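Issue 218. Parser rejects a valid record. Input:
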Amino acid sequence: MYRVRTQIVAVAVLATAVLGGAAAARAASAGQQHTPDTALADDFNAVTRDTKWQQTSKLKLTFPTYHTEGLAYSPDHIFLSAVQILEPTVKYPTPQGGYDRTPGKGIGHLFVMDRAGHLQKDITLGEGDMYHPGGIDFDGTNVWVPVAQYRPNSSAIIYRVDATTLAVHKQFQVADHFGGIVMDKQTGHLVGNTWGSRRFAEWDLRGKQLKTWANPNFFIDYQDCTYVPSSKMLCAGVTNLPQTPSAGGTSATYELGGVAMLDLTTEQVTREIPFQQWSTAGHVATRNPFTMTADGNHLTMRVAPDNGDEGNGTEILTYETTVSPRP
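Output the parser choked on:
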């Protein structure tokens, strides 16, 4: 594993700021049985297959967005990661050098918008064969972005982007493809998921791997995740399943979408739901970028499933529902 040498003092200051910010945000929620620190977990635990989600807005993005990957909101900005493919990867007849395909070529983007969706800055991220940004997370101060090779069992760089100044910091490098990440504000550690979300890893802020575990679930492949207090993560994704022979068989796949909540302490999936809403281009809504928030008993999900060259281009879709959490 390669590592970027970050001074210990700087790491300690960053960890203190992250944990302190989380503590300062704790306040009672008037008229609710839960606090802001438990609302998202409590509300999602009340979601079922029969929960009625209403699409309440559709925000059309008017700049080139390429293949969208991750979505995060700060008080001032919308952040959207995307990969611009210059040369597609090509699978080898047999693995070569531990890889199943060529590296391809591309450019990694982190688009910074105002809350109305107007592009303010296009931040280019990546080095060499590592050009594929994945799912991203906003921790209250920074946006965390993994940028990996576009092939499994490869390598990735973990970036930290200051959500206010937009300064980019190369935090560390890891020897595998990691396509998603969250900051666990309970521990101050980072948690990432590999290609197809088949494995998770936890690191400190200097890149030291603290533990790793296999995904206990095979329902969907997680594409983008958001942190849930305390020490949980919500992940959305998709699985492409074959159709019946009369509908085209394996050449006409069906997109099954869903959202899962994982406990970062027990390493188990604690709640999981299918989500079958569709985009303008006909993709399941949880195909790629995803984030979810809670306000009292009200959940808001934002997704951006369509690429820039599909349908009406990339649109950020908002779905909302009100639930009745268990006492």
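Fixed in the parser; the record now loads. The chain has one domain: 8-322.
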